[in-house]
Amino acid sequence: MDELNRRQYLKAMGVSVWQRRDLVPEQAEETVTEAVVNEVSQQSSIEPPAQSSTPSRSHAVDQMDWPALRDCVRDCRACELRAGCTQTVFGVGNTQADLLVIGEAPGADEDRQGEPFVGRAGQLLNTMLLAMGYQRESVFIANIVKCRPPNNRDPKAEETLSCEPYLARQIELIQPGLILAVGRIAAQNLLKTDITVGKLRGRVHRFGAQNIPLVVTYHPAYLLRSPEQKAKSWQDLQLALSSLRGATA
Ligand code: URA
């Protein structure tokens, strides 16, 4: 993507881009990436997550292909969330994506439409992806839990645990080059930690046995409420890009 386009998407995202006036354009671009390269080298010391605590179901899900997995999620009654929502929200996008975005749980719009991130937060997520150079359709977007929690409350531990085999299988099937965890619930569940997003962001973690690079950033819904954090989120997205580029170089 050319710099002009990126700047337009960043503007739409609400990030002001500054440039040193004393530098020629090529040097100026380097200043954008400099901070990122420094951050990539700091690897997370967090241990890969343990396996789900529901071994038999998890084992069956482990073997599923996409259609079987989709049907299994659609018919799931493993926790009480399904009774209170309209439909399950499986996830959407390119099943061979480089980039896998993982959020928390469907909200009201997603519950109605059966697709993750279609409300206001989803629109901002789309703009964030465009600023990275990705169309929404070219990445895969999923959530920690597939059913909407009542009144948008946080998913309970037993609910995230019930849903874990589905996301684990999605990750195995996609084999993304990078996972972008948006928000506290995604970050803490994927990394099995209670460390805050503010402390988890800004470095590349590793997920699971395959050591998939994982970058944490703020949830777009939080960014809508706290736009002053958008610049930090843009740093995270650049970190993700630079990790992805490193992986494909
Ligand atoms: N927030 C999320 O975390 N996921 C969605 O799908 C929608 C809003």
Task: Provide a descriptive summary of the structure in words.
This protein has 249 residues and is an alpha/beta fold. The protein has a single domain (3-13, 53-248), classed as Uracil-DNA Glycosylase, subunit E, CATH 3.40.470. Helix content is 47%, strand content 10%. The chain is built from eleven helices and six strands. The protein has a six-stranded mixed sheet with strand order 1-3-2-4-6-5, sandwiched between helices. The longest helix has 19 residues, at 230-248. The protein is globular, with a radius of gyration of 18 Å. It starts with a helix and ends with a helix.
Keywords:
Uracil-DNA Glycosylase, subunit E; alpha/beta
What's the CATH first level? Answer: Alpha Beta
**Could you tell me the strand content as a percent range?**
5-15%
How many domain modules? 1
Note the overall shape: globular
Structural class: alpha/beta
Number of strands: 6
CATH level-four homologous superfamily name: Uracil-DNA glycosylase-like domain
Gross CATH architecture: 3-Layer(aba) Sandwich
Calculate the terminal CA-CA distance, rounded to whole Å: 17 Å
Main-sheet strand order equals 1-3-2-4-6-5
Give the radius of gyration.
18 Å
Overall average residue pLDDT: 87
Biggest sheet layout? 6 strands, mixed
Helix/strand order: HHHHEEHHEHEHHEEHH
Bound molecules: uracil
According to CATH, what is the topology? Uracil-DNA Glycosylase, subunit E
- The portion of residues assigned to helices is 40-55%
Low-confidence stretches: 24-53
